[in-house]
Amino acid sequence: MTVNPYPLQFKPEMKERVWGGRALEQFGLELPEGHIGEGWMIGDHPNGTTKVLGGPLDGLGLDEIRERYGREWFGSKGFSEKNGRFPLLIKLLDCNDNLSVQVHPTDSYDRLPAGELGKTEMWYILDAKPGAKIIYGLKEGIDRTGLQQAIDEDRVMDALQEVTVKAGDAFYIPAGTVHALCAGVVVAEIQQNSDTTYRLYDYKRPGLDGQLRELHVEDSLNVIAYEGAGATRMSTEDAQPGSWLTIAESPYFLVDKGVVRGVLGARHLRRQLRHPRHCRRPGQHCLGRRTIASCQSRRMLPASGHSRQLQAGRRDDRHPQPRSLTRGQAAIQSKELYASRPSCSVQLLFFLPEKTGGKKKRPPGSRNGGKPDGSPITLRSAGLLSSSQADQPSDAYPAATAP
Is 298 a catalytic residue? Predict the structure, then answer.
């Protein structure tokens, strides 16, 4: 069956974890019963693939679409060279309890499972309870011998560095970095498409099956980068409205953070626009002559869709305002994944509305939580590419979506 490329919306795949909870419900996600620790938002992996919602390809997984349509839909940068899968895995994590102390291997580790990649990743802290922490690398001076001694003496935690976090923090975690998320944080995780984790320590707790979870001490000690790698805490400063701030860059992805006010349009993405003259008016983002209706929520634009145009929606009944949020909370309003032409990288954008002040008196003629008609709403966004910006052709455009 021939299918013309169209924007694809994916259903997240939820994963129960011993450390999970129910916090992902605050992002408008429907959760099954249980301790849900992970929402795989965009995934193409044997352990889970996101499936299409709606249209001719309804019910097909991202892996099936990749196999059927190849570069026409995914572009030349939309595949891992090692296993042919989509190169990134995007998750939301609800850490109701501490995760295991763990480390991920590099692509070159000789004991990787067949077809698996290493895992370099980054975290963007969406929400954090007061005093919440993460484990973030080894303490200064700890080498393999010192870490092995700490393991033998059951004092692993003494060798680890703890960092207090807050919403808006970002951390780049290259393969080989010892790390762990701790209780009280909700995180967007951008990573290589890998599900390989080596547990160094797990608090001697049982898993969902009641049995102690397996540790991987030998592999952990083998892959830890004791010198030179380490984790990196990225800038937590917001970009100015209409501009972008790069918060993480690696051989596998580039992550930008931006703040826009009002309806999101091409004018807010000028940092990455190479030909802004193509944008006919504010609120439009032009990829060609045809117009696609405004896209919302976990959608992918095929690589062959470069003769199209995305138009940011207006704030009316078709695109209702995000629900009110308390301070420190955030909501995933939309997630866009696209490749604008066969030679282009892919990009995904998170749009996170947040409430920026206390409750105000409602002005005359206002609605939507006291904001006057047409007044601005703050959006926070993080986008990513599957390769560095240098690999992106000059006529490729990032996507625009309606708030």
Answer: no
Residue 22: band (very low, low, confident or very high) from pLDDT cuts 50, 70, 90: very high
CA atoms within 13 A on the CB side of 50: 25
* Chain segment 225-257, per-residue pLDDT in tens: 998 555 667 765 666 665 667 777 788 877 777
pTM (predicted TM-score): 0.73
Question: Average pLDDT, stretch 342-347?
Answer: 40
Q: Is 184 left (phi over 0), alpha (psi -120 to 50) or beta?
A: left
Looking at the chain, the domain(s) classified CATH 2.60.120.10 span: 8-233
Q: What are phi and psi for residue 184, nearest 5 degrees?
A: 100, 10
pLDDT in tens, 150-167: 999 999 999 999 999 998
Quickly name the fold that domain 8-233 has. Answer: Jelly Rolls (2.60.120)
Catalytic residue among 199, 267, 299, 308: 199
Specify whether the CB–CB gap between 189 and 123 falls below 8 A.
Answer: yes
For residue 397, give both structure tokens: 């455009």
**Rounded Cα distance, 22 and 34, in Å:** 8
**Contact, 80 vs 193, CB < 8 A?**
yes
The token pair that represents 190 in the structure block? 């951008």
d(CA 253, CA 236): 19
**pLDDT over 50 at 291, yes or no:** no
